[in-house]
Amino acid sequence: MGVCPRCPISHRALYFCSFQNNSFCGRPKAAADSTYYGSYPAATWAFRMKGRPRKDLYIQAGVYFAENGIYQNYQHRTGFKFNGANIVGYEIPIEAQWEPHFGPHHDLPGHYKLGFVYDDVRRADNYYNTAGQSYYVYGGKQLMRNSSWQTYFMFDQKLMNYPGRPKSAGLTFMGGYIYNSPHTAVRDFEVYGALMSQGLIPGRPEDMFGVAFSYVSIAPGTRDTTMAMVAAGDYSGMPNHATGVQTNAEVLEVDYSINVMRGVTFRPDFQYYIHPNGQVGLRNSAMLGFKSYVSLF
Fold it and tell me: What is the mean pLDDT of the chain?
């Protein structure tokens, strides 16, 4: 058994979920552009190999099995299932990560990840029929693609330490780019960046200030299909629960994590959504909230 493919390793999961918006908490959503693989760590059939040709470099590859209906309660959320009756294909991720330490004292760690994924699950093309025309405009059978792929680059790099403060304090930048096969994806690419400053205020070594921005592009085929449906006044079967043309979506987030006391954290959070659900026809939205964390043991 294994965990979900392309889930961020522990340090990056910590950085991703320092923020609360779903564009990359857990992992960037363009990397989870599938209904056959879990977006978060979960039980799945898989094989994985990992090796280190040198201390600051690892290379890993694996085979993860795609399961139909993985998000349904009967398949994924109600128990631990050993059977493989719903396996419909496989995915092969190949990934390398470089882990340098910069600075005169080699105390500025970074992680640079490059990966490629091949997926053999049959999926419907998001625009074409078998005759090479728009399946919505001209009808006919929707073209089925025998495989798809994804490539990605992700990194985080500590930029500076704060003198006279704990080793964990400092300023870190995180960023990444994910590009999916545009014929089968909902999101053809995503780019994101974030700054995290821990221990900026003297005497508050565990507090963290963060600002993040992400841009998600809707695949051209999905966009053009929704444009044809809107032009025809047909909103009944819009993909992805859309109510209009989907093009792109952006999210800006600013938050501050306050370490109230040992085991207690309070995190006010502000988010601003541009083109919610990727729809230019929806008004931009602002959200103000908070997250609290209490550890009893």
Answer: 87
